[in-house]
Amino acid sequence: MILDKDILSLFSPYLGKPSINLLFAIYMPKNYLFTSESVSAGHPDKICDQISDALVDEYLAQDPYSRLAIETFATTNNVIVGGEIRAPKISNADIENRIRQTVKKIGYEQDGFHWQNLKITNLIHEQSKDIAVGVDANHNKEEGAGDQGIMFGYACDETEKLMPAAIYYAHRILHNIDIAIKAKDLPALGPDAKSQVTLIYENNRPVKAKTILVSIQHPQGMQQEEVKELIKPYIIKSLPDGWMCDDDKLLVNPTGIFVIGGPDGDAGLTGRKIIVDTYGGAAPHGGGAFSGKDPTKVDRSAAYMARYLAKNIVAANLATRCTIQLSYAIGVAKPQSLYINNHGSGVKGEDLVRIIDKLVDLTPKGIRTHLGLNKPIYHRSAAYGHFGRDPEDDGGFSWEKLDLAPDLKQVI
Q1: How big is the CA angle at 376 (ends 407 and 60), to the nearest 5 degrees?
Q2: What CA–CA distance (Å, rounded) separates 196 from 214?
Q3: Cβ(81)–Cβ(269) under 8 Å?
Q4: Residue 338 belongs to what H/E stretch?
Q5: What does pTM read for this prediction?
Q6: How far is CA 194 from CA 12, 213, 358, in A?
Q7: Tens-digit pLDDT profile for residues 283-309
Q8: What is the pLDDT of residues 128-145, one digit of tens each?
Q9: Catalytic residue ranges
């Protein structure tokens, strides 16, 4: 049974009350389908995200306190970078080389987009001094947030990485295919690809894939069924045992032909795949993208912190699902709000808010210090999701660590 929206409006003043939560628990569907999509490292928008973050890393390696907002546009054999920075000067030749090496690593050696033949236009310029006045720390005030905004974090117990299942497996499918192509375990399929996974939920738990869609660039003359048989083992490998959909529900290149791809087929732009970057639509997303921004930008760092907190709350068995929102005002250090919703599972959100306030400094500087974000660790995050990854020894994906869970358990 589904509540009519006019009936729902009658209950809007009472949302959050125990009685209305019970009502929604009764009427919310428990058996349903849910879909998320992913895109490969060679998707035009993801190429741009990776170029922007490769340049972020280049500047942070020179000065860990660089201020950066770098955007990338890509089309047929052209890459344009622009934006505002306050950072050490890097030569145009070095910037061009970093861009070419990024495109080469992705795998582009095609007539319409080739790492050697790209025309690169660099429009990066100095950041406005007005921003620095309002944001930088001085003897009178703490460092403030680089902009206003809202940021969300999410975690759930659907997968071992505490990620929503649909986006997690959509990423895995493309990543495993990409690894096989680069290892030459697959014939020369192209780098541009997309996936979409629709899962069957029973009693609010994912149990199997109903439909899987993969579109992947291929050489001229390769047939649709041939592509399907080549990648099918990697799709099965990416899913839990018994989760593979029926063969007629595995859709590979449903238009039949996908020869021209990448920026030659469709222009790319930084920051256009924000739902792919986060939770695949299973949770809210804040107003901003991540790639191209240094960690003083709360669009990025506070979203990482919100994920870190949500993941540790679920890992500490204080909830099975956790959504966190943080909000900031430009030039102000302390967050304007911290909201935690455990969706009726585990410890109440308002109790966790009081605990988090005591355990973690949520100012921009506090977040960067706690997670060690002033490092060149961002290029690797710009494909296959910023979340659900393994923390790395050099500080990469530090927001995926579970080191706060013991403290949370002890306090509770």
Answers
A1: 115
A2: 7
A3: no
A4: strand 337-341
A5: 0.91
A6: 38, 8, 42
A7: 999 989 999 999 999 999 999 999 999
A8: 766 655 566 555 557 878
A9: 43, 45-46, 71, 84, 194, 258, 266-267, 272-273, 293, 297, 299
